[in-house]
Design brief:
The structure is a homodimer. Chain A is mainly alpha-helical. The first copy, chain A, has helices spanning about 10-25, 30-40, 45-55, 60-70, 100-120, and strands at about 45, 75-80, 85-90. A three-stranded antiparallel beta sheet of chain A has the order 1-3-2. Mean pLDDT of chain A is about 85; it is low at about 1-5. Chains A and B meet through helix 1, helix 2, helix 3 and helix 5 of A and helix 1, helix 2, helix 3 and helix 5 of B. Chain B binds a DNA duplex through helix 3 and helix 4.
Chain lengths: ~120, ~120
DNA sequence: GAAACTACTTACCTCTTGGAAACTAATCGG
DNA sequence: CCGATTAGTTTCCAAGAGGTAAGTAGTTTC
C-alpha cells in the first residue's frame, strides 16, 4: 500500500491562504505600506508633500503606486483649483480598514529592532 | 519669502515608517506569509508536506524562503534520523509573534473578497 | 522673458524575483 | 539493480520592479 501523506488542510485554512494572497497582491511592492502609513499620519497630503515625506521614493514610483492605491479604492485623489494646481491624496474610509495591519506591522518592526539591539549589546 | 512647505512629521512617525520598512524587508517576497500561515496551521511540517500544501511554490523557492525565515529565527529546522531522512520545519516562539499580522492580513483579505463579491453582484 | 513650482509622464536601463526543469545523493522496497 | 522517496541544489531564462534623468504643461513670481 502506497503511503498517502496527505494532510488535507481544512477548507477554512485554504480560504485563509487565499485571503492572505489577495491582501498581499493589493499591497505588494516596496512603497504601498509606506505611502499608506504616511497618509494615515498626515491626513490629506499633496503629491509633493508625499514625495518629500516618503524617503527615497521617485516621482515615477509615487505616481504609479498612488494610481494602484486609487484603483483599489484605498486612496482618494482630489484636484484642487488653486493657483498652481495641487492634488490632494487621502486614505479613504475603506483604506482605513488597513490600519490594524499597518499598526501590527509597525509594532512588530519596533519589537524586532529592540530584540536585535538587545542581542547585539 | 520662500514658501517652506515642511511638514516635519514627528520622530515618532519616522520610527513607525522605519519599523514598517524593517518588517517588510524580513517578510518580503511572494511566499513568506503563505509559508508562515501554513506552518502556523499545520504545526511542524516536513519539506515535502510544505511543497504540497503551499500551492504553486517550486522546490527552489521553498528552500530559499525557508532559509531566509530560519536566518531570521522565525522558523526552526530539525533534521530527523529517519529511514529516508526527513526535515521538520516549525514556527519558532519568536515567529509566533507574527500571528497578529498574519491574522489581520487574512481578515482583511476575507473582507476584501466579500466587498468585491457584493459590488459585482 | 527666465526661473520656479505644481504634478506628472516617458524613456532607458539594470537588478532582482521567481519559474521550469534537470540533477545530486542517500536510503529503502521489491 | 531499478525505481521511488527524502531534501534539496543548480542552471537557465523571462518578466517585472524599480531607479535615474529628462521632458511636458500650466501658472506665478521676479
Amino acid at each position: 500500500m502506497r503511503k498517502q501523506a496527505k494532510l488535507n488542510i481544512t477548507p477554512v485554512c485554504k480560504n485563509r491562504i487565499t485571503a492572505i494572497r489577495d491582501s498581499m497582491e493589493i499591497l505588494s511592492g516596496k512603497w504601498k505600506f509606506h505611502i499608506l502609513g504616511t497618509l494615515m499620519e498626515g491626513g490629506s497630503m499633496r503629491f509633493m508633500d508625499l514625495l518629500r515625506e516618503v524617503e527615497g521614493i521617485a516621482a515615477k514610483m509615487l505616481s504609479k503606486e498612488l494610481q494602484d492605491l486609487e484603483m483599489n479604492q484605498l486612496v482618494s485623489r482630489t484636484v484642487l483649483d488653486t493657483k498652481p494646481i495641487t492634488v490632494e491624496y487621502e486614505v479613504t474610509e475603506y483604506g482605513k480598514t488597513l490600519k490594524p495591519i499597518i499598526d501590527e506591522l509597525a509594532n512588530w518592526g519596533v519589537a524586532y529592532r529592540n530584540a536585535v539591539f538587545r542581542n547585539q549589546k
